[in-house]
């Protein structure tokens, strides 16, 4: 009887907690995050998308801003012009902007940040694709920046709005990973490693009057069941990227919550290490792709949410081509391809899985499917930091990951990237795409790029990662879709 009473009391307390949104707070919010930023908070030096979820648009800003709809608008740049050849960009900067430490923002800060990004030894993930393409940076006056490109880039303004292009305070750039100093509406107050990060409103922000939240706390909760419990108990007010699709109906039917379902740029893939034998044989990679039933993974790991993909673009991308028929589910063909490639079965491989449910739960399904064609996948569950220091460095056989960076198909031209893909034909296609300024030509070329990646089965392409935003009413302003992985905290209100 006492046990029953204790359970009843706990449920009652959880119910009471949630009837009072954020315990009556109207100027603060607690949000859940699946992954903790790693290894630090500098998005210009590390690859983890979780870094941008915390600091991008909030602490650190770029020249342009990418909105929830994917459109580009002005941020630190007031305006810009582009020469007809698409190689010269002139940015006029906003005046009166200051960093959190009081230092004035001007053109020299842009030059410093971009030269740092393209310097030898830079670990900026956009170094090769974006910053190495900048041949010259001119600052004719404190409020003007001229960027001269080697090759035209039709996506350049969008790239200036990604977290890799945020502008750092030169005086504090070296400590950005632990103490980021930017121009944004929020400042870092505290980082409890393994637990939470707290941001506080920047009272001196140029648009401070429109920022409703004085404090925002991110809590790291990677276990799906714990995410559900935290929402129901009122420990968090919302989860912009809720990781338990099996519980969505529960929240949809609960009048205390709002649920938004949208898309992301996440290309969820079974990544294949192309530089390792026997994966360097295209027949083996095609066999892996043919062994995988996309629908079974979407149904089993994502409760049916997620659009199947056959190459490295998602349906919401301009120029997307549905190539799911190139490597369809066909276990018998998978067996035949392995035999043709001279691969003796059982073939023992390691399947490395980071924490998100799409990887862990999806990985179990993938392993079972591979086993049916003679590929025995030993599952290795790792934390995010381990994945970044291991699989991302090329130390893996197979892994499951969602690439959330938009338009990152350019990475297939880099054989040093963790896929280890080397293709002269691909590099030539990408070069044509990058140098073309004609819209129709670019669309055709991006179609050709997708077809080559699918034909070469560089990876086994699974599905577009959906986004589930769950929040307590009446919290407003969370993104329903994510063209980039960011949280625009200045837009939040109760």
What would you say this structure looks like, in words?
This protein has 494 residues and is of the alpha+beta class. Helices cover 27% and strands 22% of the residues. It folds into three domains: 13-39 and 184-256 and 473-491, D-Maltodextrin-Binding Protein, domain 2; 62-169, Dipeptide-binding Protein, Domain 1 (Dipeptide-binding Protein, domain 1, Alpha-Beta Complex), CATH 3.90.76.10; 266-466, Dipeptide-binding Protein, domain 3, CATH 3.10.105.10. It has helices at 2-19, 49-55, 107-118, 156-159, 224-233, 248-252, 282-290, 294-302, 331-340, 357-371, 384-389, 424-435, 439-455; strands spanning 28-33, 64-66, 72-74, 77-82, 88-93, 134-141, 144-149, 186-192, 196-201, 215-220, 238-239, 257-272, 347-353, 375-381, 398-403, 460-472. The strands form four sheets. The protein has a six-stranded mixed beta sheet, with helices on both faces. Helix 7 (282-290) packs antiparallel against helix 9, helix 8 crosses helix 10 (357-371) and helix 12 runs antiparallel to helix 13. The two termini are 41 Å apart. The model is unreliable at 1-23 (pLDDT under 50).
